[in-house]
Structure formats: structure tokens, C-alpha cells
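Appendix B. Chain record.
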Amino acid sequence: MASVVGHAIAAITFGTAFSKKIKNWKFWLLGIFCSIFPDADVIGFNFGVAYGSFWGHRGFTHSFLFAFIFACFITLIFYRKSIFKKKGFLYILYFFLCTVSHSLLDAMTTGGKGVAFFSPFDNARYFLPWRPIKVSPMGIESFFSEWGLKVIQSELFWIGIPCAIAIILILSLKKWILSD
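C-alpha cells predicted for this chain:
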């Protein structure tokens, strides 16, 4: 898996594309939460849930269907009045992108068993053909090690730099479009 830092950077990047009218502290925090939440499935390890099972790590909570359901749920809970309006669609889109970015980043890592993108219809695990991101250690204590440092370096290069470029492009395009 990519680290919490890498996932949060992706959420922040997506958020820059949205209008100032819908962005506030709640928007940003929920986006970051959505980008991290799929890894809640690691709790299953404590209850004997096998890694490769439906509810195992990188299983259903990493699927496209889960990302959509979770985005709708977050929007319904936190933006109930907007759910059937244009704003509601934008919130769902943002939270979906944040949640699904988690799976895409995990599928670009050098370890694990792949991601069940199409669960529950197909529980096979997939990686993307290009896997440059070093897989993050599972435990917090393992993260503060030489391995954890290599993960941060990898994520800065493979997630941080592309996201910084994307943010600059998004903000430049918004400025250019709005200046006319």
C-alpha cells in the first residue's frame, strides 16, 4: 500500500480542481478521509480474515463499486441537503476520486497481492503494469525505519512531484479560464 501521506496528497490534488464555493475544511478533511479509508480493511487481520479474501486487505473496500457507494454515503451524511443538486454530484465525484485513488496508488506499489478493483463481481487481484511506488510497511513502528524512509522518498518522487505539477496546471487553467 502507499502510505497515508501519499493518499492524502492525491486527495488534495483532486480537490484543487473544484470550485471555491464547495471547498471548506470539511470538504478537505472528508476527501483525505476517503483517500485513506479503504485501508480500514487491515482490521480484519486481527480477526483472522485472510489477506486474499473478499473482506481481506485490498479486497472489496478497494473496489470501484465500494468507492462509489462510500462517496454517496459520505455525501449523504455530510451534505444531505445537496445530494440531489449539482453540488451533490460534485461532492460524490470528489469523494469517489479520492477513494478510488487509494486503490490505483496501491496497484502501483511493489508489494502485496494486488487490488480487487472489480469486487464483488470479480475478486481477482490486479496490479497496474507500472509499479514504481515502494510498498509501505503495515505497522506504524515499521514506518519509522529505513524502509519507511525509502517509501517516503519513493512517494515524494512518484506521487508528490506529479501531484505538484497537476496542482500547478489546474490552478493555471482555472486562472486562465476565469480571467476571460
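Further analysis of this model is presented in Appendix C.
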